[in-house]
Write a structure and sequence with these properties.
seven-stranded mixed β-sheet; 368 residues; three-stranded antiparallel β-sheet; 15% strand; globular; transferase
Length: 368
């Protein structure tokens, strides 16, 4: 009886642990945000592969001495969650000491290596953790209780009084936050996409990157496929900040809901998940008008999530579900294959191919 009672007690405590993991998950996010704000990864990276002690980190990030004990506790969380690694330095040659009294050494992990260097994911991570995107979720429960027209059903607008894209149009700093975030993601992902699925970009002579921001994706494609003439279509306030000089890419100010310039292929990276089905169909219909027939090489190339498409382990499934809620903040949605197929065929396309080679994202080729 005691054994059964103990087993039941342990099951209850395990359930409580799972509840706490969900309850305090925001602490992990805020610890990561603090690491970005303080540039802790850069401080460790400055000391090379051997790692950095807490005093060495403090010397780089310049915090008051009164906060050093608290920084030690922050580093403990960041190490426990895999952002950094922490270990005591190895004992000196000939020493019998285990060096437990020596300062802890903090090193970069595969996760934090993504936050340093010339092409890192710090900008998009900063964007995802920005208060403008986090604060609407405090009102998620009340948002569910309000009846709203579909066109007004945006959590971001519910919290801030304007849409995400409206704020980007009016606020140069917020616009730069989004553009810099998208550039960092493209710099990270496009070399992988081209390597893993080069065939998607072969056999075409022109490509327009719709909603392509500052052109990082289009530049990567132009570099990998010099025979492909690449252009970027985006709104006026985005194109106004396009990089100067010879980037190998033409920038076109316009609106994808009105008209898309003609090309063999239309490229949509992380665009359609921002919009509901009817808006996606409008965009795709304009894509259909812009490209030639399938026999002439016409296609739409999409990088987005395809929920449930293999390979998909538990961590992939969880992140896809979480990301679906995240894009709900701007009235977007992640889609499974059935949902993708529905909007493709409604927009007048005849076939598609999903290649799940980009982690939780896929390359989707859509044919007229």
């Amino acid at each position: 009886m005691a054994l059964n009672g103990s087993t039941t007690n342990q099951a209850l405590l395990h359930a409580q642990l799972e509840l706490w993991q969900n309850t305090f998950g925001y602490i992990k996010s805020m610890a990561l945000k603090s690491a970005l704000d303080l540039r802790i990864a850069d401080a460790i990276h400055h000391h090379g592969g051997s790692g950095a002690t807490l005093p060495q980190i403090v010397a780089r990030i310049m915090i008051p001495s009164s906060k050093i004990p608290h920084l030690r506790r922050l580093m403990r969380v960041l190490a426990a969650t895999g952002v950094f690694a922490a270990q005591h330095p190895p004992p000196a040659a000939g020493s019998s000491s285990d060096n437990e009294d020596e300062p802890m050494l903090y090193t970069l992990t595969p996760v934090s290596r993504l936050l340093v260097g010339s092409q890192n994911l710090a900008p998009i991570t900063t964007m995802n953790l920005h208060p403008a995107f986090i604060s609407p979720f405090f009102e998620l429960g009340s948002w569910f209780q309000h009846e709203e027209a579909p066109e007004s059903c945006e959590l971001f607008k519910h919290a801030h009084g304007q849409t995400c894209w409206g704020q980007a149009d009016r606020d140069a700093t917020f616009n730069a936050l989004i553009n810099d975030g998208m550039v960092s993601d493209s710099n990270f992902l496009m070399d992988i996409a081209i390597s893993e699925c080069a065939g998607a970009f072969q056999g075409i002579t022109s490509l327009v990157d719709v909603g392509g921001g500052l052109g990082a994706s289009a530049q990567a494609i132009a570099k990998a496929f010099p025979g492909v003439k690449c252009s970027v279509l985006d709104l006026d306030h985005v194109v106004a900040n396009a990089p100067a000089g010879d980037t190998g890419v033409q920038y076109i100010a316009g609106n994808m809901f009105e008209k898309i310039p003609p090309a063999d292929a239309v490229f949509l990276k992380w665009i359609l998940h921002d919009w509901d089905d009817e808006e996606c169909i409008r965009i795709l219909k304009n894509c259909r008008k812009a490209i030639p027939a399938k026999e002439e090489g016409g296609k739409v190339i999409i990088i987005d999530m395809a929920i449930g498409v293999e390979p998909s382990d538990l961590r992939h499934k969880e992140m896809q579900a979480v990301f679906d809620i995240f894009v709900m903040v701007i009235n977007g949605k992640e889609r499974n294959e059935k949902e993708w197929k529905k909007i493709f065929f409604k927009a007048g396309f005849s076939d598609y191919k999903i290649t799940p080679v980009l982690g939780v994202r896929s390359i989707i080729e859509v044919y007229p």
